[in-house]
Amino acid sequence: MGADESFTDKVSLELEKNSAVNHECKHVGMLSIKTANKSVEDALKMPDPVDLYYGLLNEGEVACLFADSNAGKSIFAVQMGDYISRRRKVLYVDFELSEKQFQLRYTSKELGFRYVFSDNFYRAEIDPEHIGVQNYEEAIIKDIESASLQTDSKIVIIDNLTYLCNSSEKGDVAGLFMMKLIALKKKYTLTLLIISHTPKRNLSNPITQNDLAGSKKLYNFFDNVFAIGQSAKDKRIKFVKQVKVRASEYIYDSDNVIVYEITNDDGYVHFLHKGYGKESDHLKDRTEEEDSMNNANIMMLHKQGKTVREIADLVNKSKTTVHRIILQEKRKAENSLDGSVPGGDVGQEGQSGQSYPLIFEPDHDDSFIFELDETYDAL
To answer: Which helix (H) or strand (E) segment is 326 a member of?
Structure first.
């Protein structure tokens, strides 16, 4: 009996040892490894991210604001920085305006007034003599790091991406560049807002991720992406739409964009909040001619052998929409060929014509396209 109890005790002790999990973090090269439970436990001890600007920017993110030329990107970026600097130190790296241009934007000679920013709001601009130096991109990232440390700024706004990464259209270069930015963020627990632009876009189309200039890899690396759109109904009106959200929730989607009007109050140029609305209310109405030209362009690209995905990227539409247009245009072509004997009508010999469903073979170059709702197309 004693032997049995001893054996049971040994088994229980062994089971207890095996069930005890080593929660310590292990390091393998660049990787740090923990159990999922340990990751959650450690993260619970950290403060939750703080909303820095009305749900558009959260603490600790690498975010992107993009818009077309003259849409007010820099004005909105300064407005965000000014607001955040009332509570925290902000470094605004300005590659767009000279010091004089910045001054003129925020002063009124007629009224003898100048806007007063918080002393927590720092502005940096590049020395023209250093533009084009060897290893420019690495050098400027290093200088931004030093400026952030010197000003003790945890919020850094960079205006704009083109000056920071000249080869943002190249996937490998863009990916490497973003990894450097993310490493900088993690090293000093920074919040980074990168201003970017969009190529000339059709105001009839809603804003999507495809409107962000540069490589698709850039978009994938951002935690948060939002855009400024120009209302086609009124040039004074702008709207802000969230395009990508990783850590929080979509608040300002196509059914709830923020509506602004750019105004100048005594030398302070800013976005004046006008309310909320639907993106569709601010889009340009399409004409039949525009739709016809767009469909013809899609079919031309299709005949050139491009895949549905490639065409979608080129025409700034979802894969589902492109696929649907291709099928519709093929049906039109088939109907025009068979128009002499339309289904259900009486033929030349007095016999009823028969209607057959049109069947199209899938293109070999195109992956199968599921007829999903377009909102899931980017997944």
So the answer is: helix 319-337
Given a contact cutoff of 8 angstroms between Cβ atoms, the answer to whether 346 and 352 are in contact is yes
Measured distance CA(183)–CA(187) in Å, rounded: 6
Tens digits of residue pLDDT in 322-343: 888 999 888 888 777 665 444 4
Name the domain count of the chain.
Answer: 2
- With tokens 């999990």, the residue in question is 21
Residue 114: phi, psi to the nearest 5? Answer: -135, 145
* Cα 332 to Cα 298, 301, 362, 376, distances in angstroms: 14, 17, 17, 28
Domain-embedded: residue 346: no
Q: Which of 17-21, 67-71, 139-143 has the lowest mean pLDDT?
A: 17-21
Residue 210: cis peptide before it, omega within 30 degrees of 0: no
Q: Are residues 88 and 204 in the same domain?
A: yes
The torsion angle over the Cα atoms of residues 345, 348, 351 and 354, rounded to 10 degrees, is -50
Instruction: Report the C-alpha gap between 186 and 167 in whole angstroms.
Output: 24
Crossing angle (nearest 10°) for helices 319-337 and 288-303: 90
The pLDDT score that the predictor gives to residue 361 is 41
Residues 89 and 157 in one domain: yes
| Amino acid letter, residue 114 | R
Report the amino acid identity of residue 77. Answer: A
Beta bridge partners of 276: 258
Range of the domain at 125: 62-282
**Cβ 114 vs Cβ 108: under 8 Å:** yes
* Phi–psi pair at 118, nearest 5 degrees: -70, 145
Neighbours of 161 (CB within 10 A): 22
Report the DSSP beta bridge partners of residue 108.
Answer: 113
Distance from first CA to last CA of the chain, Å, rounded? 64
Name the 3-class secondary structure at 100. Answer: helix
In a domain, 24, yes or no: no
Q: What's the confidence (pLDDT) of residue 23?
A: 55
Residue that terminates a domain, selected from 262, 282, 302: 282
Q: Is 99 helix (H, G, I), strand (E, B) or coil?
A: helix
- Dihedral sign of CA atoms 242, 244, 248, 249 in order: positive
Cα 220–Cα 221–Cα 227 angle in degrees, nearest 5: 75
